[in-house]
Task: inverse folding
């Protein structure tokens, strides 16, 4: 008998569904919301309304694509949090009602843990225990992953997430939201040693990214006083230098975490894992320190339901199912 999981994700601005059969992800259908583009960030109410509009179509397309019906499902896995409350409620209520109507288990999934477990979608898969650097628009963490259900947070940001530092920096440079991919693209033709920005120095395995963003702000203001077209004329070098600083702050802590724990299995997770400089620096470090490194395929780094369905598959044997009285947790603790 096959185990067929339907995964549903609606924590932010992607409405996504995925079918996973016996641990193999069959598809990953995502409706991206374009309504936020003009606002410089995700507008919570618009996100909820767009999820409401998209959810039925996304789920039906996903089942049709996998050539299955609701009756074939063994269980449903859904993002319970963290995320935007209104956005979570749409996916969670749909999943909860469906599990009740079909009389099949519902599995609560922590969005950030699912980002980490996305490393188990394709081969090669990391061996336990491994360290995972989780980098997204809302999170920057170093996690010791002992098993699918056992994860320990070793470090976290004390202010902004690294994705936020990318996006806020990109906004100062005139790029639309989310600006991380633009910085990555423009940095490719730039000199990363040309400009210096003040990096915050936090002890231990924690991070701080608010200082470097402010450093960029004052640097740009200062330069524009003398040269109003400074940004346009130096965009490649500014992007390369700013990105280089952000990635080096991440890498320093990752090396420290590996040295402190003795763990050489290193994984990345979250939207910023798509960054090409981060991937390059990680591969350099893996040679230098003899690490085995793992990065999910690009489509599984940003928000997606495949990671939710796969997490459901990994949790399914443990029989830890949701109750009908459960609700979404916008600030779901790690
Ligand atoms: O994991 P994710 O899709 O959503 C959250 O849960 O936050 O991550 C989105 C973040 C955004 O900050 C976006 O700018 C950043 O990932 N991002 C990138 C790149 N692609 C996405 N940052 C830098 N370089 C990229 N190539
Ligand atoms: Zn995410």
Result:
């Amino acid at each position: 008998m096959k185990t067929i999981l339907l995964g549903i994700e609606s924590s932010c601005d992607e409405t996504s569904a995925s079918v996973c059969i016996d641990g193999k992800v069959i598809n990953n259908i995502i409706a991206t919301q374009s309504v936020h583009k003009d606002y410089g960030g995700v507008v919570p109410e618009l996100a909820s309304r767009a999820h409401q509009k998209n959810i039925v179509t996304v789920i039906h397309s996903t089942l049709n694509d996998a050539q299955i019906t609701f009756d074939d499902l063994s269980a449903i896995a859904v993002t319970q949090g963290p995320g935007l409350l209104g956005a979570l409620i749409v996916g969670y209520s749909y999943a909860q009602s469906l599990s009740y109507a079909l009389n099949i288990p519902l599995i609560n999934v922590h969005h950030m843990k699912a980002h980490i477990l996305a490393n188990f979608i394709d081969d090669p898969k990391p061996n336990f225990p491994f360290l995972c650097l989780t980098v997204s628009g809302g999170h920057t963490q170093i996690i010791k992953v002992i098993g699918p259900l056992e994860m320990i947070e070793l470090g976290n940001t004390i202010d902004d997430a690294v994705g936020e530092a990318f996006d806020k920096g990109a906004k100062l440079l005139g790029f639309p939201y989310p600006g991380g991919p633009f910085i990555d693209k423009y940095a490719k033709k730039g000199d990363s040693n040309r400009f210096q920005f003040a990096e915050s120095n936090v002890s231990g395995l924690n991070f701080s990214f608010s200082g470097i963003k402010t450093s960029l702000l004052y640097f740009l203001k200062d330069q524009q006083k003398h040269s109003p077209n400074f940004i346009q004329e130096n965009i490649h070098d500014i992007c390369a230098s700013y990105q280089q600083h952000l990635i080096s702050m991440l890498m320093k802590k990752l090396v420290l975490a590996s040295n402190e724990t003795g763990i050489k299995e290193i994984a990345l997770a979250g939207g910023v894992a798509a960054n090409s400089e981060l991937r390059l620096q990680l591969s350099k470090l893996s040679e230098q320190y003899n690490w085995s490194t793992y990065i999910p395929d690009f489509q599984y780094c940003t928000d997606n339901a495949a990671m939710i369905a796969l997490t459901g598959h990994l949790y399914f044997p443990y029989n830890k199912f949701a109750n009908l009285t459960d609700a979404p947790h916008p600030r779901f603790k790690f």
Observations:
- DSSP finds nine helices and eleven strands in the chain.
